[in-house]
């Protein structure tokens, strides 16, 4: 290589590098302008946490939501408690009113308390979903009890409804569409039902749905036995003191089981 050729080669490389830098800078500037105009930042460069799953709500939050909180639990029990207390106090056990008269006052007290609870919630602009559901069941039970003249029929709609729910859950398992999975998708997965693709979650929802069917059948079975015996007052006591604890325990175990699976999968993903 001659001495005179080195400056020309160096100069040639310098021009090419400079031209490449200018073109690259221009392309980057143009790309940034297009992204800014089309608002493509989130699509092209998603934030790191956008696709991350949110943690499952705590067991207490989920139970509170489903039962309407402690207040909702109390409010749902008040009409039943009113029916039992009035039927006992006004019936043969205490005041000795005629059976149908005691039943009438028990129905009036139960329906009135349900209406009062709904009215208070409405005035305070609070959610009335639980109150409305409770009022419908109370009204139907009251109608059946009055029509038949037997206090035990006050509880019949609830017993049949619970058995129906258990049967529906079992059918969903048989068709491999476990309803507990759908409920979890709505409550804790932003409405997404992508758990079908997760074999471990799918199996968990299958046996949890069976568990719920068994829990509901137990609750309804105890009440059905007392109904068959004609123990109307015992039916009310069982409904208040037994049904809700079984429901709450099943719900707590369900939340724990799902959280255990999702947490383990999240840890495995992080490690990988």
Automatic annotation (TrEMBL):
The keyword S-adenosyl-L-methionine does not apply. The keyword Transmembrane helix applies. Keywords: Membrane, Transmembrane, Transmembrane helix. Pfam families: DUF3159 (PF11361). The chain crosses the membrane at residues 78-97, 103-123, 130-148, 154-175, 207-228, 234-258. It comes from the Bacteria. InterPro entries: UCP010219. This is DUF3159 domain-containing protein. It comes from Actinoplanes sandaracinus.
């Amino acid at each position: 290589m001659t001495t005179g050729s080195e400056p020309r080669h160096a100069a040639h490389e310098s021009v090419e590098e400079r031209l490449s830098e200018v073109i690259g800078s221009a392309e980057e500037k143009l790309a940034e302008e297009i992204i800014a105009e089309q608002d493509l930042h989130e699509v092209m460069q998603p934030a790191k946490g956008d696709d991350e799953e949110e943690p499952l709500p705590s067991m207490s939050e989920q139970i509170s939501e489903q039962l309407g909180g402690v207040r909702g639990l109390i409010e749902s029990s008040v009409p039943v408690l009113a029916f039992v207390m009035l039927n006992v106090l006004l019936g043969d056990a205490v005041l000795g009113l005629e059976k149908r008269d005691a039943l009438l006052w028990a129905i009036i007290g139960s329906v009135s308390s349900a209406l009062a609870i709904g009215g208070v919630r409405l005035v305070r602009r609070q959610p009335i979903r639980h109150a409305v559901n409770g009022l419908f069941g109370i009204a139907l039970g009251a109608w059946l009890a009055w029509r038949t003249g037997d206090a035990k029929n006050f509880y019949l709609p609830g017993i049949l409804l619970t058995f129906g729910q258990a049967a529906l859950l079992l059918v969903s398992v048989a068709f491999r569409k476990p309803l507990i999975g759908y409920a979890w998708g709505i409550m804790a997965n932003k409405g997404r039902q992508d758990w079908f693709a997760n074999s471990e979650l799918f199996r968990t929802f299958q046996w949890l749905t069976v568990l719920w069917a068994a829990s509901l059948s137990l609750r309804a079975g105890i009440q059905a036995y007392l109904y068959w015996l004609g123990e109307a007052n015992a039916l009310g006591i069982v409904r208040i003191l037994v049904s809700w604890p079984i429901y709450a325990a099943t719900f707590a175990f369900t939340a724990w089981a799902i959280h255990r699976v999702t947490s383990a999968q999240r840890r495995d993903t992080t490690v990988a």
